[in-house]
Design goal:
single chain; 220 residues; alpha+beta; Glutaredoxin; Glutathione S-transferase Yfyf (Class Pi), Chain A, domain 2; 2 domains; 4-stranded mixed sheet; 4 strands
Length: 220
């Protein structure tokens, strides 16, 4: 019998970046230990955490292989690592012979991971506010831009999920963005394909467990 993977996730309940990893780990049925990093109180800026993750962000994914520990401080890199390190667990990318499909899923995911989430992160929103702007309005507008791009692409190939009827990394990333969209007051009904996929994803037990309201460090 294969050994149970030794995985630790440094996380914060409100972090959508950490949330997408919680979803992926749950979908793959990979057990993990949570270490909570309070972004609101600034715990990510302590010397101890900076030594672990120089980016001073969450998530920080750590896999103890037995011979050494692999630390990954970027969520999408960690998502792809899960695909490569645990190929016998539920795949979240199309098969390796479907190069177009894999690129399509990565494109959708990166609309969120690269284009949208970074400009709505807590770190950036605090800076926007210090410059005198309305941080909620900023977050709402940036999220609408991201969801508009996602909707324009996904409506052509979506099935039950973003790529046919298989849950992929794109769906995990989309789900956490929509969590935030509702918090920002975005009318998600303006994006019918996105809304339909999100509702289906929200029924998944792994997604329910990963929801920010169901995290042990949730204070809301």
């Amino acid at each position: 019998m294969a050994a149970v993977p030794d995985i630790t996730l440094h996380t914060f309940f409100r972090s959508s970046s950490a949330g997408r990893l919680r979803i992926a780990l749950g979908l793959k049925n990979l057990p993990y230990k949570s270490i909570f990093v309070n972004l609101t109180s600034g715990e990510q800026f302590t010397g101890a955490y900076k030594a672990l993750n120089p980016s001073q962000t969450v998530p920080l994914f750590v896999h103890n292989t037995g011979s050494h520990s692999i630390s990954i401080g970027q969520s999408f890199a960690a998502l792809e690592y899960l695909e490569e390190a645990f190929p016998t667990y539920t795949p979240l990318l199309p098969p390796s012979n479907d190069l177009e499909g894999r690129a399509y899923v990565r494109t959708l995911a990166n609309i969120i991971v690269s284009d949208t989430q970074p400009v709505t992160s807590l770190r950036l929103l605090k800076r926007v506010e210090r410059l005198g702007a309305d941080r909620l309005l900023w977050a709402r507008e940036m999220t609408v831009i991201g969801l508009s791009a996602y909707e324009a692409i996904v409506k052509h190939k979506a099935g039950i999920y973003s790529y046919g009827n298989q849950i992929t990394l794109a769906d995990a990333c989309l789900t956490t963005l929509v969590w935030n969209a509702y918090l920002y007051g975005v009318d998600v009904q303006e994006f019918p394909t996105v809304e339909r996929i999100f509702k289906r994803m929200s029924e998944e037990p792994a997604v329910i467990r990963a929801h920010w309201k169901n995290q042990d460090d949730c204070t809301e």
